[in-house]
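Check out a protein:
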Amino acid sequence: PLSAEPALEASVTVSPNPSSDEIRIVVPKNIKIESAKLLSISGGQVLEKQGDKSSTMTLDIHNLTRGNYILQIMTNEGMVVKKVTKE
């Protein structure tokens, strides 16, 4: 499994997906986002943002090339991995 906990993964939303401009990560109020990394499908890091220990984060992806990316979200409860499409 890619993520630490299935329940944690199910509680994390990434929207809109697909997106052309920005994506918003939302986790339950009792969980804090520590950082988020966006990786190309080949594994290269294209974006990283440190969290402010809140339960939401917005990533600006308008400069990225269209395609699929892997989003790694680090929280105080573990890591969640989501697939994101840039259109």
In short: The CA atoms of residues 3 and 80 lie 5 Å apart.
